[in-house]
Amino acid sequence: MKLARLAEAAGIAIEGGEDIAVSGFAIDHRKVAPGTVFGAFQGSAVNGEDYISQAVAAGAVAVVAQPEATVEGAVHIAEDTPRRAFALLAAQYFTPVPKTIVAVTGTNGKTSTVEMTRQLWRMAGERAASIGTLGVTTPDESVSTGLTTPDIVTFLSNMSGLAREGVTHVAYEASSHGLSQYRNEGLPVAAAAFTNFSRDHLDYHGTMDEYFEAKMRLFDEVVDAGGTAVVWTGNSEWTAQAIERARQRELRLFTVGEQGEDIRLRARTPTQLGQELEIEHAGETRKLRLPLIGEYQVANALTAAGLAIATGTDPAAVWDGVSRLQPVRGRLERAVITATGAPVYVDYAHTPDALEAALAALRPHVEGRLLCIFGAGGDRDTGKRAPMGEVASRMADAVIVTDDNPRGEDPAAIRGQVLEGAGDNAREMADRREAIREVIESAAAKDIVLIAGKGHETGQIIGSGENMRVEPFDDVQVARECAAQISKNAWGATE
Ligand SMILES: CC(=O)N[C@H]1[C@@H](OP(=O)(O)OP(=O)(O)OC[C@H]2O[C@@H](n3ccc(=O)[nH]c3=O)[C@H](O)[C@@H]2O)O[C@H](CO)[C@@H](O)[C@@H]1O[C@H](C)C(=O)N[C@@H](C)C(=O)N[C@H](CCC(=O)O)C(=O)O
Ligand SMILES: Nc1ncnc2c1ncn2[C@@H]1O[C@H](COP(=O)(O)OP(=O)(O)OP(=O)(O)O)[C@@H](O)[C@H]1O
Ligand SMILES: N[C@H](CCC[C@H](N)C(=O)O)C(=O)O
Ligand SMILES: [Mg+2]
Predict the structure, then answer these.
(1) Could you tell me the domains of the chain?
(2) Where does UDP-N-acetyl-alpha-D-muramoyl-L-alanyl-D-glutamate bind (predicted)?
(3) Where are the alpha helices (DSSP H) in 188-337?
């Protein structure tokens, strides 16, 4: 494909390029091969512009970079927002793409919502996939990408790969990092959802307002003009602002929730294994059985239903699908029931709001004590730690603060910061496996155990840079091993 043609289709002005053939795109100079367009971006760790000459030496035919950057020996595509221009250009190269694409943003619930949207489409007979924290999930397999929002080249090539496999519907998760770094751009996005907004990632965004602005790029710029904004109507001021932004862009507004205009949640009754919902849609009231526990999953399931309906799926098939939704890996996943009969749940709550939602989800099912084990990640927003301690202490009966990916920080210092917000019912225990073992051992028949923070993760990240190592650790698996070991001991079996 010729550079000039790609640029023209992307609406980017360049001089020449008629004879230059493009054979790929890269944002890391180590991935440049002859014929590559290189995106040189200023990052938070290094400046990609420092690698331009090495990229050209490796065969880059064009470099998308700020006007001030020096490019010799290749076409300089000079743009003030090079990440955006690069995305638009690359999107012309990675084709075809699935015909129906939707995106989900919000502090919590993105992974659950994209996964449920995928399930609803699939049950309605579409070939559907999702992209997010759990990786790329297609009708045939699930492959992890490492990040919630992959880099732009991986993202676009995944999208066209999915289209080539015959996938027609994709729901992707738009994290605030991904949005602010233009990691998913350039594709037609028919509908975008906003789940909720609360504290996280202030290490990166600085203030709540800036964090919100990053998310709002989804409504302001990424979703198609004339597309749909699906908004879960929590009670927060942020929801109202998101609705206002959708109005300003003249998007079709589709609101969901207790105050929802399009899908109204009229009643919710927890049952032993799920919940009964009464909803109103298109002037009709209907009762649904959601086979998942937790109020927060109602928000995600109905937001997913909104996305499916907004993209033309038959509502009858959507409502039928809601009653058959499968649990999302690591989100209130029941790992095991202890020998005494206490269920042990694993959840990915890693913000104060999510921890509150997860504990609130379990509370109606608790007849004895609610026991909670969690930690906070290193090299991440430090200000969320004490509020997480406060929430856990307030909502659970007993709390153990342990380690969760300490990365480059001193784990004891992280635990200390969490404990600053916690009360007398909380204590610390560095070793996560030990903490899980002890709680499972002490859990009585009517207790419920929540192990929060790592969800689907399969490793404990310790150290950073060259000293970084990942020790295998899977909360679900560890809980099962501990429960099995304890029941074996209880029955007097020998090793
Ligand atoms: C802070 C952050 O988000 N960093 C991400 C970002 O890096 P950056 O653009 O700042 O890159 P940088 O490392 O400073 O390098 C600048 C540029 O130079 C290039 N480079 C760099 C070195 C070199 O030798 N040659 C070279 O060309 C890099 O490819 C890059 O284009 O872009 C990189 C490529 O896309 C990501 O790998 C990297 O994710 C890091 C590893 C990370 O930990 N990100 C986390 C915080 C993250 O993004 N999380 C969110 C999830 C949040 C949530 O779910 O709530 C996510 O979407 O995954
Ligand atoms: N709608 C919701 N409201 C409040 N909390 C939620 C909601 N959905 C999920 N949570 C909480 O957040 C955790 C993470 O959920 P999920 O993975 O779906 O969110 P996410 O937005 O993708 O998170 P991340 O930013 O890490 O990718 C859940 O395990 C649960 O504790
Ligand atoms: N995507 C989130 C996940 C955090 C999960 C938690 N286990 C941690 O490591 O903090 C982040 O990168 O902040
Ligand atoms: Mg996610």
Answers:
(1) 3-93 (3.40.1390.10), 100-323 (3.40.1190.10), 333-493 (3.90.190.20)
(2) 148-149, 175, 181, 183
(3) 202-205, 208-217, 237-248, 295-310, 315-322
Ion ligand 4 residues within 5 Å by Cβ? 110-111, 133, 148
Question: What CA–CA distance (Å, rounded) separates 102 from 192?
Answer: 6
- What's the pTM? 0.92
Which helix (H) or strand (E) element contains residue 440?
helix 432-442
Q: What is the DSSP string of 351-395?
A: SHHHHHHHHHHHGGG-SS-EEEEE---TTS-GGGHHHHHHHHHHH
Distance separating alpha carbons of residues 336 and 361, to the nearest angstrom: 17
* 111 CB within 6 A, ligand 2: yes
3-state DSSP assignment of residue 22: coil
Q: Which residue's CA is the closest to the ligand 3 atom numbered 2? A: 350
Asked if the interface predicted TM-score (ipTM) of this complex is over 0.85, the answer is yes
Count of positions (residues) in the chain: 495
First to last CA, the chain: 65
Closest to 187 measured CA to CA, from 223, 149, 136:
223
Distance CA 84, CA 88 (A): 6
